Amino acid sequence: MHSPPVLIRSTFFIIILGAVLATAGCGSSRQPAAGVAAAGVDTARLREAVSVLAADSLQGRFTGSEGAAAAARYIAGELERLGLEPVGDSGYFQRVPIQVTKRADGRRRFSFYPSVRAWGLLPPEQQLMAVNVVARLPGADSTNLETVVVGSHYDHLGIRRPVDGDSIYNGADDASGAAGALEIARVLAAGPGLKRSVVFLFTAGEAIGFIGTHYYAEYPAAPLGETVAALWLENIGRPDPLVGPGVAWITGSDRTNLGRLLEDAGIDIEVEPDPRPEQGVYLLTESVVLARRGVPAHTLSSFGFHDDWHEPSDEIETIDFAHFGQVVTSAIVIVRYLATGTPPQWYRGGQPERSNF
Ligand SMILES: [Zn+2]
């Protein structure tokens, strides 16, 4: 997600510490969600995907870098192996043109660019090409255009200021969303046909302004008017102390009737409302881009504002794969519902201000 203001973040640590102390023991008393095995989630695959994406050899997979391209090729290869349909503009890849300019202080500024063709006319030093990876699991009825988007970002911060001699920002927890989405794709592709298509969108440029998601919103694989819902996965590799191991939280749960629909359908999963709405995470995660265009969209996360976030220390050793597997299991239940059940609707006033950017 985007960085919240530093002041809020440090204040937040005090709040979270107080909350953890107040509810000590609460999280650990939870039973694991039933059915990792039933859903078929394979934590070994989650581990493999994170180990590929967060490897030092990918150099922190900065947007448009060779490391990010290697990550995109890995994801596309997995999607191809699963038999998903390529729905990018170049097979599984959707080119995402980015303009790079210099700020007054010499730092680079990355901007969304609305078309590949116009981007080609920019001076070469201003051109950076990244890719989203996009694939579709077709619905059972090919005449039904209704689609669910499962989103996650796969690239990250790259090489930055060294901390304790390490300058590679691996972003293992940030890779958990993409790894989880691959596992959802695998499980759903192996399961019974779904009423609606599911588009798996792996975005570029999340950390530099949701650029890949903005680009997808301009050039979606299925019309946004037919996109009945979107679920993003973000930082699901470690438990959030506020909700406990095996549990995820969802942004914007007071904005749509999705929670009510799941309840009415008798679906009981370990998902709670965002435990700290005052942080504004709903507006700081990529799903809000589609929400602003009218698609009921949420982000599933278990981010506990840990100290390794956006630091070189965010390595695979910090990932809790038992927890991660539980969250992916919950995500599968939600996506399956979205692809078969009654589509969620906005509550009155729930949709964030409509915007095309
Ligand atoms: Zn992230």
Commentary on this structure:
With about 350 residues, this protein is α/β, with parallel strands linked by helices. It has one domain (about 5-15, about 35-95, about 130-340): Zn peptidases (Aminopeptidase, 3-Layer(aba) Sandwich). About 30% of the residues lie in helices and about 20% in strands. The chain has 11 helices and 12 strands. The chain has helices spanning about 5-20, 35-40, 45-55, 65-80, 115-120, 170-190, 210-220, 260-265, 280-285, 285-290, 320-340, and strands at about 85, 95-100, 110, 125-135, 145-155, 160-165, 165-170, 195-205, 225-235, 250, 270-275, 295-300. The strands form 2 sheets. Strands 1, 2, 3, 4, 5, 8, 9, 10, 11 and 12 form a 10-stranded mixed sheet that branches. Strands 6-7 form a two-stranded antiparallel ribbon. Strand 6 (about 160-165) and strand 7 form a beta hairpin. Helix 3 packs across helix 6, helix 3 packs across helix 11 (about 320-340) and helix 6 packs across helix 11. The chain is globular, with a radius of gyration of 19 Å. Bound molecules: zinc ion (ZN). Zinc ion binds near residues 1, 174, 206, 234 and 235. Zinc ion binds next to loops.
